[in-house]
Each structure stands twice: as C-alpha cells, then as structure tokens.
Design a protein that fits this description.
322 residues, 19% strand, alpha/beta
C-alpha cells in the first residue's frame, strides 16, 4: 500500500470509528421523550409505548415529557432548541409535522429542516364520536340533524390545526353542514368534556377513544379511513355516507437536526425491532393502531409529501391561516 492509500485508509478509519463508538456509548444519561399534548391522547400513548421499549433496550430510562400548547408547536420548539445528541426525542403526529407548517404564518421552526426523522411508528384512523345524548345513531343521521339545526352542534378538537380539527372541518365542508369548533389543548381534555356533555362531537384517534366506546360512554358513528378497522369491523367509514371523505393519522419519532447518523440509525433499529415483537404488535392493534416502521430516509420523504397533501386539505376545508 502506497503512502496516499495509507493516508486515505487512515482518514476513513478515523472517521468511522468515532461514529461506531458513539452509537455504542449512547445514551450516556436518561433520555427525554417530548410529547406535544397532555397525557391520555393517541400521541402520548404511542410515545409511552416507544419510551417503555427504549428504556429496556438502551440501558437508560426514557422519560415522557408532556408539553402541550399551540397544536404541538411548543414541544416542537423545545426540540429544535435541544442539543443534537440523541438525549432529547420527539414523538409527534402529522398534526405537528405536516399540518402546522401550512396553518401558521409565523412558525418558530421548520419541521422539515429542523427535525431529523428517526422512524415512523404507526398510523391510525380517526373515529367520529358523539355524546350518547346526541340524537344520531349514524353519520347519515348526524348530517341530517346538523342540517335541521344549523350552528347548534359543536365539535371539540385537540387544538387549532390538529388532525382532529381539520378532519372535522373537512367533514363539515364535504357534508355541507354548519357546526361550531371548540378547541382544547389535547385529545384527553376534549374527550373528557365530550363524555361530560359539554360538547356534542369529536373526531379523534381510535387508540384514545376505544375504551370509552366499549364502555358506552361515547357513541362511535364512523371511522375516517378508506376501510373499516380490525378493532371494530362493524363500524362503517364516514366515506360510506360522505363520498370521498378520507383522513388518517400517523405517528413517528424525531430527533433534533444534526443528530449523528449513528445515533439515528441505532434508534431506528431499536424501534423497528419493537414493532416486530408479537406482544408489542398486539398492543398496538388493540389500541386501533397499525404498527409501521420506516427508514429515516423514507420517513423524511414522507414528511415532505404529507406537508404538500395537508396544504390541499386545509385549502379544501377553507381553514384560514393563523
């Protein structure tokens, strides 16, 4: 080997070994998993499942840190300010990542540039819920009721610009009804007030609502996706009544931009392994979630596609920028 070849080999070795060592020594302290909504909502449930698994496999405690506000933007800002060393992670949904950039004129960060996708974790349909006192047993009856009493039915959401908000706005537009938005700081308080009868209707993640549906505290009228869900196969899709209506939500894990690839890849590998575990797979499905891993590169491409998709939905729903 000549001197030039030896020099190149040395540079390659010197560049690779520190990265490999970094992945092996990470994490060196507890990891914080930020969630942009209060405990009890679908994003929080996903974050806690991921945190539990990572705590077991990384050798350090992974602690969820709920920071609600501005549809997840408060948590997002904390993320982009965090050191890019893998000790601060972010479990987020399409609401915080793909909707907010289209809805808010002045965001303090750019999700597509300031966050590093680690892995998609899963997806879920949303479900249209009403309080049992609402005189509607189906989507068709709810639409008829709303048309007979315009402006009297209100709907909760997990916050302005959330997937729940825009899903209901799109339903309102496509069904041609007049219903009134009541925003909350997360799915859990919205669900609580729906069960208490303070609001009439809510579209939210299946995972957070399933227990309340089965207990009879809430009535499910339809799901938002293209097909019925395994957890409740008798429940029709909204699209069966409102032709063309289709919405789904996804959840994923992010790190601050600039986090070393070795750490990103290790985290992705751990999450992908989690989703292959039969017990964890069954847990996801029981919550109405479809477990789905993706490479960091594929997840980054999906984020860009989702931002473009939600721009069209926001325009169709007629939701003004904030």
């Amino acid at each position: 080997m000549n001197k030039t070849a030896k020099a190149i080999a040395c540079l390659v070795t010197c560049g690779v070994l520190p990265l490999a060592a970094l992945a092996q020594t990470y994490p060196s302290r507890p990891v914080r998993m930020i969630v942009g909504f209060p405990p009890g909502g679908p994003t929080d449930l996903v974050a806690r499942l991921v945190a539990q698994h990572l705590s077991e496999t990384l050798g350090q405690q992974v602690v969820t840190d709920n920071r609600p506000g501005a549809g997840g933007a408060v948590a997002g800002l904390l993320m982009v300010m965090a050191a890019p060393d893998g000790h601060t992670l972010f479990t987020a949904s399409n609401g915080e990542i793909a909707i907010s950039p289209n809805l808010y004129r002045k965001m303090s960060y750019n999700p597509a540039k300031d966050l590093a996708p680690v892995s998609r974790v899963g997806s879920s349909q949303l479900v249209l819920l009403v309080h049992p006192a609402v005189a509607a047993q189906s989507v068709k009856e709810l639409v008829a009721l709303a048309k007979s009493k315009p402006g009297t039915i209100n709907f909760a959401s997990s916050g302005i610009g959330s997937t729940a908000h825009l899903s209901a706005e799109l339903f309102k537009t496509m069904a041609g009804i007049d219903i009134v938005h009541v925003p909350y700081k997360g799915a859990a308080p919205a669900l609580a007030d729906l069960m208490g009868g303070q609001v009439h209707m809510l579209i939210t993640g299946f995972s957070a609502a399933l227990t309340h549906i089965k207990s009879g505290k809430l009535r499910a009228l339809g799901v938002t996706g293209a097909s019925r869900v395994k957890a409740m196969p008798d429940l029709p899709t909204i699209g069966e009544t409102v032709a063309g209506y289709q919405i789904s939500s996804w959840y994923g894990v992010f790190a601050p931009a600039g986090t070393p690839a070795a750490i990103i890849n290790r985290l992705h590998g751990e999450i992908a392994a989690m989703l292959k575990r039969p017990d964890m797979n069954d847990r996801f499905i029981s919550l109405g979630l479809e477990p789905e891993a993706s490479t960091p590169q594929a997840f980054a491409a999906q984020v860009k596609e989702e931002i473009a998709k939600w721009a069209k939905i926001i325009k169709l729903a007629g939701v003004p920028q904030q």
